[in-house]
Amino acid sequence: MEVDFILGLEDGKKRFVNEVTALGKAFAIAIPHDKAMDVKDEVSFFQAVKARLCKFDATGQERAGEEIETTIRQVIDKALVSEKVIDIFDAAGIKKPDISILSEEFLMEIKGMEHKNIALEVLHKLLSDEIKCRAKRNLVESQSLMEMLEKSIARYHNKVITAAEVIEDLIRLSKHIVEQDSAAKELGLTDYEYAFYSAVADNNSAKELMGKDKLRELAVVLTETIRNNTTIDWTIKENARAKMKVAVKRILRKFGYPPDMQLLATETVLKQAEMIAKEIIR
User: Fold this and answer.
1) Residue closest to 162 by CA, chosen among 148, 152, 175
2) CA 164, CA 120: separation in Å to the nearest integer?
3) Nearest Cα to 201, choosing from 244, 280, 140, 253?
4) What is the pLDDT of residue 30?
5) Which of 150, 156, 198, 266 is most buried, with most CB under 10 Å away?
6) Angle at which helices 191-200 and 163-187 pack, to 10 degrees?
7) Is the pTM of this model over 0.85?
8) Strands (E), the chain
9) ω into residue 97 within 30 of 0, thus cis?
């Protein structure tokens, strides 16, 4: 498969995308010359392969030369699957699941794919998108998950592990994400309360000194206090932010939070509050 072959080459994706972009610019200049139109099918093929590669781009950046490629697609009657958006699952040759992308069924389908480089790119993008969505409601947890994801990908790019091995890593990460989804329910916390629980439980000394139950109680009180003190513009008003900071510090001291970790915990709680401020305003 073309995409799998390119992904298997050293820096293959970047080199191929750059060359096809250059080809597209040259073709746009040459049309409607007869010799240019004679190779329109070949250009269409390379454009389609490039489109599939770019669908795996986890950064979400716009494709270079999009305006030029739009012109090309208007000229080439068979280009890029008749203007239809190529779904990432279709590009990878796997069926789109009706259930969670992190379901056991879907992960096993990814694991069993013949083309491991494509399987890796698909799973990397899906996990990256999933974690970015979670970042909107749980800062600490999403940062931890993203670090785990990028660490595994870096090991693969540095040739420490193979594509098959990094897929195993990402499948384990996927299962870890699913397990974390049940953590809030087990603690009897709402999503917002669990976000603040993650913020204050993000260090071993606090866990050892206070224990899970006390940290849970602290998270509930923090959520209620922040909700009661949050206004639409509190993040841009210095006095409102200062008031919130004092309130958070007072609560941490009251619950016996480790003194040497209070400053960091306060800043983390405030950052988390900023992320979900609009949702928790009454």
Assistant:
1) 152
2) 8
3) 140
4) 65
5) 198
6) 110
7) no
8) none
9) no
